[in-house]
Structure to design on (416 residues):
């Protein structure tokens, strides 16, 4: 499937039955939000911190990382054309991001000491932080499909154009949210200062 | 009124009712909310019976005024038959709406007297239900106040479908959604700086509610 063709595609089809692509990412976001609600915002804030750092690193060094990955792939003959390069880069960033997110949630994680606020404010904050993490994770995963012209279409067939909702939503995916990736480090720095001061 | 002014007014309105809820305490606010909700449901389901009772009261007054207790009973019954209904069909919904508003406001006032301060704790629930009651107030009084204050405003509660809890609920949700949408439009117009300030402020606020130290640990 050609790059330009894939760029316009937003509806995944599997045996002819599948919904708009935004539903997939909204579902991922909601699942993450539910996990956040179950874990509580004291733990979720630690994950938020790591996710924000991951987005900053991946967007700030995107051009350098892309150049290195493409060069290595070319050396091994893995990026024969634009489609292959897009698939490779998309897979590379997605895997790196997923690994970082996994490390933020699994095993020994960066937690914050203390007791969360009692319900209902504690529950509401957990939902809000969970939704933020859901947006950051699902949105970044979507971005690496959208930015590289939906290379997953080379593996799973896509059908139809992006819906009007999806076209509107891709304008606000996390890596495209700020004019400059450096903005991402502001909340990280402020949060870290607060944590260190206790 | 500009969009910015509307958003700010809405936020101030919600903050005021949240603060009022906190001042009054959770038990008072929950009582008001539940009574308002139950009264609405009852008036929706059993509105006909309430209207009949009101009309019956009107008939009793006509009966008394026509000498039903002191004079000719037959004439009094004739007077009842020809007497108009206290609540006419076209005023049915308005009557039930006003009745609900009276119940709502009376509960708000009496809950202050009936429930003692020590029984009504100041916590998050108080703020939450204060906000919900604020939305009830907005939906109940908003349209009529707009009609009152605007030069050519009109407001009517006459509705062929009758009282609808779902409309009250969706009206409240629509109000919140419009507020969020307008706020989002305002934030977006502020560019990256506005977004990063909002994100940072949210995270700082969330972190500041953690009790008993906020040091990071692994």
């Amino acid at each position: 499937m050609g790059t330009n063709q894939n760029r316009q595609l937003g509806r995944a089809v599997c045996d002819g039955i599948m919904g708009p692509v935004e539903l997939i990412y909204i579902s991922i976001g909601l699942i993450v939000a539910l996990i956040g609600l179950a874990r509580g915002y004291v733990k979720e804030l630690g994950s938020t911190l790591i996710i924000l750092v991951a987005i900053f690193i991946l967007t700030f060094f995107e051009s350098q990382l892309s150049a290195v990955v493409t060069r290595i792939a070319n050396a091994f003959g893995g990026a024969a054309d634009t489609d292959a390069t897009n698939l490779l880069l998309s897979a590379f960033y997605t895997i790196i991001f997923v690994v970082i997110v996994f490390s933020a949630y699994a095993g020994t994680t960066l937690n914050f000491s203390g007791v969360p606020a009692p319900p209902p404010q504690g529950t509401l904050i957990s939902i809000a932080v969970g939704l933020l993490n859901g947006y950051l994770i699902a949105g970044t995963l979507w971005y690496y499909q959208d930015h590289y012209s939906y290379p997953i279409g080379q593996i799973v067939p896509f059908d139809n154009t992006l819906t009007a909702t999806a076209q509107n939503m891709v304008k606000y995916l996390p890596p495209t949210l700020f004019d400059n990736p450096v903005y991402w480090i502001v909340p990280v720095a402020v949060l870290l200062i607060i944590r260190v001061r206790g | 009124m500009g969009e910015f002014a509307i958003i700010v007014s809405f936020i101030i309105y919600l903050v005021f009712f949240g603060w009022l809820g906190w001042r009054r305490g959770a038990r008072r606010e929950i009582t008001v909310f539940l009574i308002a909700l139950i009264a609405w449901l009852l008036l929706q389901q059993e509105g006909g019976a309430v209207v009949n009772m009101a009309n019956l009261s009107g008939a009793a007054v006509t009966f008394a005024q026509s000498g039903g207790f002191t004079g000719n009973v037959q004439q009094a019954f004739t007077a009842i038959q020809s007497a108009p209904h206290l609540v006419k069909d076209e005023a049915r919904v308005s009557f039930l709406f006003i009745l609900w508003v009276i119940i709502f406001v009376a509960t708000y006032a009496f809950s202050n007297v009936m429930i003692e301060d020590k029984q009504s704790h100041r916590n998050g629930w108080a703020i939450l239900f204060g906000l919900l009651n604020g939305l009830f107030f907005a939906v109940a009084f908003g349209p009529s106040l707009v009609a009152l204050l605007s030069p050519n405003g009109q407001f009517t509660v006459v509705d062929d479908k009758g009282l609808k809890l779902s409309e009250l609920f969706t009206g409240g949700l629509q109000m919140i959604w419009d507020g969020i949408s307008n706020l989002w439009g305002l934030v977006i117009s502020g560019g990256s700086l506005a977004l990063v300030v909002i994100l940072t402020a949210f995270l700082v606020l969330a972190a500041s509610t953690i009790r008993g130290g906020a040091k990071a640990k692994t």
The first helix of chain B runs from residue 3 to 24. Chain B has seven helices and one strand. The mean pLDDT of chain B is 78.
